[in-house]
Amino acid sequence: MxxxxxxxxxxxxxxxxxxxxxxKVHPPKSINYLYGYxxxxxxxxxxxxxxxxxxxxxxxLWVGISTFMVGAIAYFITPRWAMGISTFFLIVAIFAxxxxxxxxxxxxxxxxxxxxFGKDPSN
Length: 123
Description:
By secondary structure, the protein is an all-alpha fold. It has one domain (about 5-25, about 40-110). The protein has 3 helices and no strands. It has helices spanning about 5-25, 45-75, 80-110. Helix 1 (about 5-25) packs antiparallel against helix 2 (about 45-75), helix 1 (about 5-25) packs parallel to helix 3 (about 80-110) and helix 2 runs antiparallel to helix 3. The longest helix is centred in the middle third of the chain and has 32 residues, at about 45-75. The protein starts with a helix and ends in a 15-residue tail after the last helix.
């Protein structure tokens, strides 16, 4: 087993998984331009901010785990291409995850950031 190829294929997913666990435990408390899930829709008010960061942490966790798994599987199929496959999957998964988060914000909040449902839909 060539550890360099294995680590290069699985490290992005592992790092993203670790970061998402930290992000889930220590989410940003208030709207800021430095840390958190920052989009126009998520930064409308504190409620959209909290919801966006809760689902953003979940999205990052799933993207990290799936990227790790794709990298590991790709390593056993084609070790020399595993890093490229893992990186390509990571980029596609992040864009899909952002699209999913924005869709969740759109279906749970109106254009002014008011909740469409009575309770917090992130739970």
